[in-house]
Design brief:
heterodimer; A: mainly alpha; Cytochrome Bc1 Complex, Chain D, domain 2; two-stranded antiparallel sheet; 6 helices; 4 strands; globular; B: alpha+beta; Sulfite Oxidase, Chain A, domain 2; Immunoglobulin-like; 3 domains; five-stranded mixed β-sheet; five-stranded antiparallel β-sheet
């Protein structure tokens, strides 16, 4: 029995043994490549900004698509605000403000994907600022609150508790 | 026939440089073959030349329908013409697309996949390195989680392409992801894997580690050749049976982590909003679904009353299709359809049913059961459980109405 366990472990180890394919990742390159931000703030770079500063960034880099006040453009771009309290109604309006559970996701997404045609062109401070602006027009944070790598994860989003794990199969079909 | 032989012989003579005696040859030919060859020359019956890369016949015109979701190019989708395809395999050129910021032009000779985070050895793999691993080929469907949202909301599309066209099925070739992860050495705390594409928006999704270690592939081949750019060239994540969006295209980074990232596309989108305002999250599997492809919306049963073959597709993200039933009387009675073998797991299954149409108005539909015993629901059952706004993972029974004149409409 004991011997069997040793053999079994040896086989497992043999399978786990690296075959030498691939090369070690360069630590510096990795830092540039790794843009993932987690809800606890892991991955956020140092930096800061307020909605006051963000308003200017927004006007210059975002308004052309998302509208002067984040109201969106009908049938072109969705709104970046509104929809609070609409999720359980017949006409739910899902926006960053009404739907997204974490402010870190807003930062992460704007940083990686916006502005649409020039993603990752904003500085960290600009991303903090324009994130603050988007949260502010949703009434989630005051205009003067400074967002930085410590305060951003503490922002409480309205739909923070709106998500439940996959409950499927949840449909009882009958013949 | 004789004449043809005569002309091709003439052609050959010219090729070999004997056309100095061409006139005499024509004279001989005409003399040998008789008067019929003096009429205007018959067109050559020799076929066209060969092509280095094949094309379909010029008369074949089926295409994807392309729709941009916003005024910015590259944030839309294109749909597969399922109603016009045979069998179960989708040609790569007709595979549906859903992009969030366009199709990047990546170079396979410089493209790299980085594996890092909770691993013993952060590693970088070139495409050449990935191809050194043992490879497998498997046939799987891909379906966008949003395939059929309009059906749920009571705005059914007029035809199959627009109602179900965010669905395709191809043979994928690649390396089992577990081999690549073993190479980097997973730490025990690694419970999630965040997969990120090299598209402009760096689209990213969090995947439970169990799926990564199960049947996940890093796919570089599609239907026998390299992936199409629209399908993630040079390499994509393939998570068989799971919603299209997690099958991250243009894959360039795998971050192993203890928690999901709660990325934009797994929170703001691709979550299923229930009637009570709560949303189901991390709803990955595509549930058992079937649909009739002939006769379907916009088609015509041209020959009047009589024998027709009803044909369609069934699939489940949870495994194999166990059975398909067809009803031609609005759901009152159901008959077992014939399944085309082999029935593959997490793949499209073609079903067929012989139908004697009486030439009167008829409502036709199909329903399937997968190997877990899950029965495809009616729209009422689905809406009863999830409401009208869950948007994603709609998979209810689809009915088509055949009119007495043979035309087919959506219901």
């Amino acid at each position: 029995m004991f011997r069997f366990a040793i053999i079994f472990a040896a086989v497992l180890c043999a399978q786990d043994k690296p075959s030498g394919i691939g090369k070690p990742a360069n630590a510096e390159k990795l830092r540039a490549l790794d843009i993932t931000v987690f809800p606890d703030g892991k991955g956020l770079p140092a930096g800061r900004g307020t909605a006051v500063a963000g308003k200017l960034v927004y006007k210059e880099k975002c308004a052309v698509c998302h509208g002067d006040h984040g109201e969106g453009r009908e049938k072109q771009y969705g709104a970046l605000k509104g929809g609070m309290g609409s999720l359980a109604t017949a006409k739910p309006m899902k926006t960053v403000g009404s739907y997204w559970p974490y402010a870190t996701t807003v930062w992460d997404y704007i940083h990686r994907a916006m502005p649409y045609e020039h993603p990752r062109s904003l500085s960290s401070d600009e991303v903090y600022a324009v994130t603050a602006f988007v949260l502010n027009i949703n009434g989630i944070i005051p205009e003067t609150l400074e967002l930085n790598e410590r305060t951003l994860p503490k922002v409480e989003m309205p739909n923070r508790n709106g998500f439940v794990p996959d409950a499927r199969p949840d449909i009882r079909s009958k013949r | 026939m004789k004449c043809l032989r005569g002309t091709s012989w003439l052609k050959q003579s010219r090729i070999y440089g004997v056309n100095q005696s061409r006139r005499s040859l024509i004279a001989i030919g005409a003399g040998l073959l008789g008067a019929s060859c003096e009429k205007p020359k018959a067109p050559s019956e020799t076929g066209g030349t060969m092509r280095a890369y094949g094309e379909r016949a010029p008369a074949e015109k089926i295409v994807r329908t392309v729709r941009e979701a916003t005024a910015s190019a590259g944030s839309g989708s294109s749909r597969t013409p399922l109603q016009d395809l045979y069998g179960t395999i989708t040609p790569s050129s007709l595979h549906f697309e859903r992009h969030h910021s366009g199709v990047p032009a990546l170079d396979s000779s410089t493209h790299e996949v980085t594996v890092h985070g909770l691993v013993e050895r952060p590693l970088v793999f070139s495409m050449e390195a990935l191809r050194r691993f043992p490879s497998v080929s498997r046939t799987h469907f891909l379906e966008c989680a949003g395939n059929g949202a309009g059906e749920q909301q009571g705005n059914p599309a007029p035809d199959l392409q627009r109602s179900h066209g965010l669905l395709s099925c191809t043979e994928w070739t690649g390396v089992p992801l577990k081999l690549v992860l073993a190479e980097a050495g997973l730490k025990p705390e690694a419970k999630w894997m965040i997969a990120e594409g090299a598209d402009a928006a760096r689209m990213a999704r969090s995947i439970p580690i169990a799926k990564a270690l199960d049947d996940a592939l890093l796919a570089y081949g599609q239907n026998g050749e390299a992936l199409r750019p629209e399908q993630g060239y040079p390499v994509r994540l393939l998570l068989p049976g799971w919603e299209g969006n997690v099958n991250v295209k243009w894959l360039h980074r795998l971050l192993l982590a203890a928690e999901p990232a709660w990325s934009a596309k797994e929170t703001g989108s691709y979550t299923d909003l229930m009637a009570d305002g709560k949303s189901q999250i991390f709803t990955f599997e595509m549930e058992a679904r079937s649909v009739i492809t002939f006769p379907s919306g916009g088609q015509k049963m041209g020959g009047g009353a009589g024998a027709y073959e009803v044909s369609g597709l069934a699939w489940s993200g949870r495994g194999k299709i166990e059975s398909v039933e067809v009803s031609t009387d609005g759901g009152r009675t159901w008959a077992k359809a014939e399944l085309q073998a082999p029935v593959l797991s997490k793949s499209l299954t073609r079903f067929r049913h012989a139908w004697q149409w009486d030439g009167k108005e008829a409502w036709i539909q199909s329903r399937c059961v997968d190997e877990t015993g899950y029965l495809q629901p009616t729209r009422e059952e689905l809406v009863g459980a999830r409401g009208l706004n869950s948007v994603y993972h709609y998979h209810a029974i689809k009915a088509w109405r055949v009119a007495a004149d043979g035309s087919v409409n959506h219901v």
